[in-house]
Specification:
36% strand, Protein Transport Mog1p, Chain A, seven-stranded antiparallel sheet, three-stranded antiparallel sheet, alpha+beta
Length: 200
């Protein structure tokens, strides 16, 4: 007959064996669990940066002159000076003319010859437009003139505007087109032509 001390000894041996067989209670040691525990987390897919929009394609420009105003510029081949309207210097009425760029730039480009003294006021006016959310792509002003190129939203969609002034002697040549309701491509063409205006 076994005594209580013998039963205690047997119980201790059983517990020791169980601990040797199951080293950690409550932890799974299956192969599948081990593989899941060591699996690498896939890296998040990185979004590629957006491709920049290609610049609008411009027509080939060639040098030309407007002798009556003492200026030179680059314009699409075949461009002529049209609709010349002399002003009155005594009454401070500007001279007006157009460049026949309708077929190449989408509009005939208007050029007006004012006075250098009015540079600051014309620059301020060049930045005013009723388009919503105006964004100025170029806004430059120096003693030799200014360049204002912008975009904004009209009821029919996005529109672009170009206003440029160039000082030639004591006069200020203003250049723009289409009442500043241009497409992106038209604005790029007008900008290239107007920017090229300089003293002959």
């Amino acid at each position: 007959m076994k005594t209580n001390s013998d039963l205690v000894s047997v119980h201790a041996v059983v517990v020791s064996c169980l601990l040797a067989i199951v080293p950690s209670c409550g932890k799974s040691t299956s192969k599948g669990d081990k593989e899941q525990g060591t699996a690498a987390t896939p890296e998040a897919t990185k979004a590629k940066p957006a491709e920049p929009e290609p610049a609008p394609k411009l027509p080939a420009l060639s040098p030309m002159t407007f002798d009556a105003w003492g200026i030179k510029l680059d314009a699409p081949a075949g461009t002529r000076v049209i609709n010349v309207s002399p002003g009155d210097a005594e009454l401070k009425m500007p001279d007006n003319a157009e460049l026949s760029t309708d077929a190449s730039c989408g509009w005939d480009i208007g050029i007006d010859r004012h006075w250098k003294a009015d540079l600051a006021s014309f620059y301020d006016s060049a930045k005013k437009d009723s388009l919503e959310g105006l964004t100025f792509l170029t806004d430059e002003k120096t003693d030799d003139g200014f360049t204002v190129h912008y975009t904004g939203k009209a009821p029919i969609g996005p529109m672009w505007g170009v206003n440029i002034g160039r000082v030639v002697g004591d006069r200020l040549i203003l250049c723009s087109a289409g009442m500043n309701r241009l497409t992106k491509e038209e604005a790029a063409c007008v900008l290239a032509v107007c920017r090229s205006i300089a003293a002959k």
